[in-house]
Design brief:
alpha/beta
C-alpha cells in the first residue's frame, strides 16, 4: 500500500485502505510521516455508532479517523522557512479558510469552511502513513519532547481552550465533572494558570485515584442518577467552597453533570461545557439566571491554544507521560478502540504504519 489509512465502514467495523500519497500543491503546506496517534473518545464513538452527525457510513461512504498525532516532516512548500524536512512536529489537525469573519476574528475553530481531520467522509484522518497539513499548524518538538508526548498537544490545546474561556485566575477554585483525559488535562492546564483548589468529580474510583495522583487534587465520587442539586450541595460543603466554585468545567456530556454545574457554581461564575452529550436536556434555567452565570460552549481549539499546549510540553509543566496507558500497533486499532470504549486506560495510543 502507498498510504494506508484506517476508515470506518459501519457500526463497529473498520478496515485499512490504500489512499493516494498527498502532494505539495500550495505555499503553506507540509507532508507529515505520522509516527504516533492518540485514541480520542470521538473516534471510538464514530466507530461504535458507524455514523457521524447521525449520517451512517458504509463501504463506499467511509469515514477516515484520527486527529491526535505527531510525526516527521517529509516534504515542505519551498516558501516555508521556519521548518525543515526531518523536523519532528506536533500537528494541529485543522485547515480553516482564513478569510471568513470567524477566521478574521481569531476563532477559526468556528470557520464554516473548516477542513478538520476526520470530521467528515471527505476529510482525511491522521490514522494514516502520510498526512498533509498547513505548515503553520505544525509545531516543532524540541529534542527533550518525544513524539509520543507530542501527540498530547491536541488534548492539551482542547483543555487550554476551555480554561482560557472561563478565565481562570490565580487563587480561584475549580470543579471539573469528568476524570477522563479531557477532564484531567483541563485540571492540569488550570493548575498552570494558577487555580488554587481543583475538585474532580466522577463515578469511577479508578479514574478518581489516577486523578488524585496526577493532579494532587481533591476528588468526589458520585453515582449515575444522583440528584444534581444535592450533589452540588455536598461538593460545596465537603470542600469548603463557601458560596460555590469560582469556575466549573463539564467534561462528560452527561445531563446530570451539566445541571450540577449550575448548582455548584457561585454567583457570577463562569462555566464551560466541554463534554458532548444529548442534543436536548432539561436545564435549571431559574438558578442559571438568578446567579448571572457565564456559560460557554467549547469546540476544539483556536488561536493561541496550541501555543499554550506547546509551552506546557516544552517546559515540562505537566507530566503528560503519565497519561499514556498503552501503545497499540497500527493494524490493531480496533483493540485500542475497544479498550477505550470499555474504560481501560487514560490515553491509549497507536504506532504509525510500520516501515
Amino acid at each position: 500500500m502507498n498510504n494506508p489509512a484506517v476508515v470506518v465502514i459501519g457500526p463497529g467495523k473498520s478496515k485499512i485502505i490504500d489512499t493516494p500519497i498527498p502532494k505539495i500543491t500550495g505555499e503553506n503546506e507540509a507532508i507529515i510521516r505520522i509516527k504516533f496517534g492518540g485514541v480520542c473518545g470521538s473516534d471510538v464513538h464514530f466507530w461504535d455508532d458507524g455514523a457521524i452527525d447521525g449520517n451512517p457510513v458504509s463501504e463506499k461512504n467511509y469515514l477516515p479517523l484520527g486527529h491526535e498525532a505527531s510525526g516527521t516532516i517529509v516534504s515542505l512548500s519551498p516558501e516555508v522557512k521556519n521548518l525543515s524536512v526531518g523536523d519532528n512536529v506536533a500537528i494541529e489537525p485543522a485547515n480553516p479558510c482564513r478569510v471568513c469573519i470567524r477566521c478574521r476574528e481569531g476563532v477559526y475553530n468556528l470557520c464554516p469552511n473548516m477542513k478538520y481531520a476526520a470530521s467528515g467522509t471527505e476529510h482525511p484522518g491522521t490514522l494514516t502513513k502520510f498526512f498533509k497539513v498547513p505548515a503553520d499548524f505544525c509545531y516543532k518538538l524540541p529534542p527533550h519532547v518525544s513524539l509520543e508526548e507530542g501527540v498530547l498537544a491536541e488534548p492539551l490545546a482542547v483543555a487550554a481552550h476551555s480554561v482560557r474561556m472561563i478565565g481562570i485566575k490565580p487563587g480561584q477554585s475549580l470543579v471539573i465533572f469528568g476524570a477522563g483525559t479531557i477532564g484531567l488535562v483541563c485540571g492540569a492546564v488550570a493548575k498552570v494558570f494558577g487555580a488554587r483548589k481543583i475538585v474532580l468529580v466522577d463515578i469511577l474510583d479508578s479514574k478518581l485515584g489516577f486523578a488524585k495522583g496526577f493532579l494532587d487534587c481533591e476528588t468526589f465520587k458520585t453515582t449515575k442518577g444522583a440528584d444534581p442539586e444535592a450533589m452540588a450541595a455536598e461538593i460545596i460543603e465537603k470542600f469548603n467552597l463557601s458560596l460555590g466554585a469560582d469556575a466549573v468545567i463539564e467534561a462528560t456530556g452527561a445531563a446530570s453533570s451539566t445541571m450540577a454545574c449550575v448548582f455548584v457554581a457561585r454567583k457570577g461564575a463562569h462555566f464551560v461545557q466541554t463534554g458532548i452529550g444529548k442534543h436536548i436536556i432539561d436545564y435549571p434555567i431559574f438558578q442559571f439566571s438568578i446567579k448571572e452565570l457565564h456559560m460557554h460552549g467549547a469546540f476544539r481549539h483556536s488561536e493561541g491554544d496550541y501555543r499554550v499546549a506547546m509551552d506546557i510540553l516544552e517546559n515540562r509543566l505537566v507530566p503528560v507521560k503519565q497519561l499514556i496507558t498503552r501503545m497499540y500497533n497500527f493494524e490493531d486499532i480496533e483493540s485500542a478502540w475497544t479498550a477505550t470504549l470499555s474504560g481501560k486506560g487514560v490515553k491509549n495510543m497507536v504506532r504509525g504504519v510500520p516501515e
